[in-house]
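Researcher: I'm preparing a figure for a lab meeting and need a structural model of a single chain. I don't have an experimental structure, so a prediction will have to do for now. The sequence is pasted below. Please return the structure as tokens so I can convert it later.
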Amino acid sequence: MDIKSNSLYNQMQSMSLQAMGNKLPVANGDSIGVGNVGQPNQSTSNFGNMLTDALKNVNDLQKDAGAKKMAFEMGDSNVTLAQVMVASSKSGIALDATVQIRNKFVEAYKEIMSMPV
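Model: Understood. Here is the structure written out token by token.
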């Protein structure tokens, strides 16, 4: 991999295209071939928004599990032990996945920061 000023961005964009089957989505639902790689893709979601939504989802799962635990402990007959265990497992798995993603981001950041400019 050759690292230059805009080379890293272009490489990331080309890898993204390869992952999507060499097609760029367009606002009207069609797809554009690889020939338009130099143009930024405005129809895709912002990465920051996607990350924020994912973290909100994990937070919601944690809150739901906590609420179900509290309801079960208080004797609510509408909440079963199975529901509490499933909600707790979902939130635990989501948190573990979030921690692993964070670790990968930190690892990638360290690798990028150690690259010579």
